[in-house]
Amino acid sequence: MPDPRPTKADRTRRDIVGAAIEVWAADNAASLGDVAQRAGVGRTTLNRYFSDRAQLVAAVDAECASRYTAAVVRSRPAEGSGRDALLRMCAELIQLGPVLGIVFADNALVDPDTWSGDEDLLGQVIARGYADGSLSVDLPGDWVGTFVWTSLFAAHLVVSSGAHTWHEAAGLLTRTLTSGLSGPPRA
């Protein structure tokens, strides 16, 4: 039976990809030298694992897709009402942090539309919400999906600016998605 523990080479590769996600979330034009520095390796070591930027971008895209998929799975999209599943999905996705930074960057290096393949889980959750009455059928699915992604962008902005923690932003996002911007009725 092969040893399931990652080798030093596996860990180094993982560290470089993780560093690239962190660095490019802040500045997707940052150099490979910046990535190497964040990873704590020399440029030669980085080049041994990734011969050019395109190879590292492909590895970053694959890692972002993996993190996205894991977040969606943790949200248990097939359980409960469509609305509850949508809120759980948002709460998990908001915690992707630097992955969201890469997704929402100008000239983004990754495209989340390519991550889920043929399976549009967000669309399925929205459709289930219509069917079970937990989401308003007068709001088109493309509107709801776009609203969710732009709300995640807003959450990312307030967290990355330091105005709120991920936990606070998740609560604000949930509240806004469930009750909109209106306040409680005045007495």
Features:
187 residues, mainly alpha, 9 helices, 64% helix, HTH tetR-type domain-containing protein
Task: Give structural notes.
The chain has a single domain, classed as Orthogonal Bundle (Tetracycline Repressor, domain 2). The longest helix has 22 residues. The chain is built from nine helices and no strands. The chain starts with 7 loop residues before the first helix and ends in an 8-residue tail after the last helix. By secondary structure, it is mainly α. The model has no long low-confidence stretch (mean pLDDT 89).
**What integer value in Å does the Rg equal?**
19 Å
Label the structural class: mainly alpha
Number of helices: 9
Poorly predicted runs: none
User: Approximately how much helix is present in the residues?
Assistant: 55-70%
Terminal Cα span = 69 Å
CATH architecture: Orthogonal Bundle
* Domain count: 1
* Multimerization status: single chain
CATH topology group: Tetracycline Repressor, domain 2
How many individual β-strands?
0
Strand proportion, as a percent range, falls in under 5%
Main beta sheet: none
Overall 3D shape: elongated
Keywords: DNA-binding, Transcription, Transcription regulation
Protein name: HTH tetR-type domain-containing protein
Domain HTH tetR-type: 10-68
DNA-binding region: 31-50
Topology:
Elements lengths: L7 H19 L5 H8 L3 H7 L3 H22 L7 H12 L4 H6 L17 H12 L8 H20 L5 H14 L8
Helix pairs in contact: 1-2, 1-4, 5-7, 7-8, 8-9
Q: What is this entry, summarized?
A:
It contains nine helices and no strands. The chain has 187 residues and is an all-alpha fold. It has helices at 8-26, 32-39, 43-49, 53-74, 82-93, 98-103, 121-132, 141-160, 166-179.
